Every structure is written in structure tokens, then in C-alpha cells.
Automatic annotation (TrEMBL):
Matches recorded under InterPro entries: Aminotrans_IV, Aminotrans_IV_CS, Aminotransferase-like, BCAT-like_C, BCAT-like_N, Class-IV_PLP-Dep_Aminotrnsfr
Natural source organism: Jeotgalibacillus proteolyticus
UniProt-listed GO biological process terms: amino acid biosynthetic process; carboxylic acid biosynthetic process
Family listed: Belongs to the class-IV pyridoxal-phosphate-dependent aminotransferase family.
Keyword Signal: no
Subunit-structure text: Homodimer.
Protein name: 4-amino-4-deoxychorismate lyase
GO molecular function terms listed in the Swiss-Prot or TrEMBL record: lyase activity
Cofactor: pyridoxal 5'-phosphate
Annotated TM spans: none
Length: 281
């Protein structure tokens, strides 16, 4: 597929990035992943907000408004044939000499990548507790950054591609999935780990919490042991590509129901899939 790199659309094989880009040398870069529905990038404003907050934290000077981002997506989508896809907007620090510099970066490398959306497994996924603990954020909050080895190392523990690996913190609290946030329901209360556990503040996580409040579910965010989750009636994971995915079992132990998860998914599908949709979480 074609990609967008620093203002130009080109074949992926033609793209070149300097070996002195500090996104490559030191992991100084952040990204957002999202999908389109009928050509519209869903929750684009929320993704850009998180991107800008992360760039500020990293000292990378770059901004992109929603119209500019939507135009990039439209142009790349058209260049790749117009079929809805999975998109990754990536901003790395840019070129600088070898060494650690405190000064901000003002000439970043900006890429927009697209790939085909994969068919989601019918009926949900299984979960597996990982032995590797979730690493702690490098600063006060977890960024969606180039530092992804903890996720990759966790993925290596999971043999089945249809299973989501689930992290605990080093203290033993439920954290998040390798590529997802996690929720569970018991007695009309929706539980999810607090951001204080060091998890990513997922865009879909925020939307699900909003939908759950509107549906009448009680919301609890906190520190939970895995034994508390395993007592749930139902559980599910979320991300911007897969949406809401029921967990059928974790480590072989099944859940009684997915009724309220299905209701949340129905509510999610009713949210307008327009770039002009104003997210009020």
C-alpha cells in the first residue's frame, strides 16, 4: 500500500527515513491508531488530542488540526483504492546528532500508514494472564510511544493469535491487554483498572465509560486483583480497531454471560461514525 510521509504520498518501498532520526535511535516518537467507517475517521478529534498531549510531553513541536488530519486520511484512502482501513499516524522526533539533548525537536518526521482491516473473530476472544508484568510509564502518564518491547515480549507468551494477553502490574493488580483496555461486569457494575495503574488512557475506553453511564451501569475504576476479575459475570476488551470484544474465558475459566457487553456494543455501533462527531466523554 501507499503511505503518506512528510507531505507526500508514495509507494511504501520508496519511503526513506534518516538513520539519525531520534525516533529510531532513542524511541522518541508517538502514534495513534484508528479506523475509518465509510471513509470517515472515527473519534479523530480524541486521537489528535492525545497525540498532541504526548508530543508536548516528549518535547516534539508539531500540531495538526482535525481538518488537516482528515485531508491526509482522505488523500491516502483514495490513493489506496478507497476501501476503509486501519490507520497509524506516527510522529517521530526527527534528525539530530547522536546523543541526548534536552532541547525540543522542531522538525519531526510525520507518517500516515494504512493497512487492511482484518475480520474479527466471531463470538469474542479468550484471555490469558501473562507472567511478564506491565512495565511502568517512563513519565507520569503512559504514552502511546515507540517504546513497545513490553507489549512485544508479552505477545511472545501467547501462542494463539485469537487470545489476548493480559498484564498485571508488578504489584499484582489488573492492568490492561497487550493491545487493549479491559473491563468486567458484576451485579450491574462496570469495573476497569484506574489510570493510576499506569495503563494507556484509551480513546475507546473513554467512549465505553460514557456509554456505560448512559446505560445505567455503575462505574468503578480502581486497583483490582485478578481474582476479583475472575468472579465477574462477563468481561471484555476494547481498542479503536477491534471496538468492543467479549472475553469468553481467561485461562480456561469461562464467564456466565455477555448480555450487557452486547448491549454496550450495540450502543457503540449507534454512535455516529463521522469525523464531525463531537466526543463528549
Amino acid at each position: 500500500m501507499k503511505l503518506w510521509l512528510n507531505g507526500s504520498i508514495m509507494e511504501a518501498e520508496e519511503a526513506k527515513i534518516s538513520p539519525f532520526d531520534h525516533g529510531f535511535l532513542y524511541g522518541l516518537g508517538v502514534f495513534e491508531t484508528f479506523r475509518t467507517y465509510n471513509g470517515q475517521p472515527f473519534l479523530l478529534g480524541s486521537h489528535l488530542k492525545r497525540l498532541h498531549e504526548s508530543l508536548q510531553e516528549m518535547g516534539i513541536h508539531f500540531s495538526l488540526n482535525i481538518t488537516e488530519a482528515a485531508d491526509m486520511i482522505d488523500n491516502l484512502l483514495e490513493a489506496n483504492g478507497g476501501e476503509d482501513g486501519y490507520f497509524r499516524l506516527n510522529v517521530s522526533a526527527g534528525i539530530r546528532d547522536i546523543g541526548l539533548f534536552p532541547e525540543p525537536y522542531d522538525k519531526p518526521t510525520v507518517m500516515l500508514l494504512q493497512k487492511k482491516l482484518m475480520t474479527q473473530p466471531a463470538g469474542g476472544k479468550k484471555g490469558q494472564w501473562l507472567t511478564l508484568p506491565r512495565n511502568t510509564p517512563e513519565t507520569a502518564i503512559r504514552l502511546k510511544s515507540h517504546h513497545y518491547f513490553n507489549n512485544i515480549a508479552g505477545r511472545r507468551e501467547v501462542a494463539d493469535p485469537g487470545t489476548e494477553g493480559l498484564f498485571l502490574t508488578k504489584e499484582g493488580y489488573v492492568a490492561e491487554g497487550i493491545t487493549s483496555n479491559i473491563f468486567w461486569i458484576k451485579e450491574d457494575t462496570l469495573y476497569t483498572p484506574a489510570l493510576e495503574t499506569g495503563i494507556l488512557a484509551g480513546v475507546t475506553r473513554s467512549l465505553v465509560l460514557s456509554l456505560a453511564r448512559k446505560s445505567g451501569l455503575q462505574i468503578e475504576e480502581g486497583l483490582y486483583l485478578k481474582e476479583q476479575l475472575m468472579q465477574a459475570e462477563e468481561a471484555f476488551i476494547t481498542n479503536s480497531i477491534q471496538e468492543i470484544v467479549p472475553l469468553t474465558a481467561i485461562n480456561g475459566q469461562g464467564f456466565k454471560s455477555s448480555r450487557q457487553t452486547s448491549q454496550l456494543l450495540e450502543g457503540y455501533k449507534k454512535v455516529p461514525k463521522s469525523r464531525l462527531y463531537i466526543e463528549e466523554f
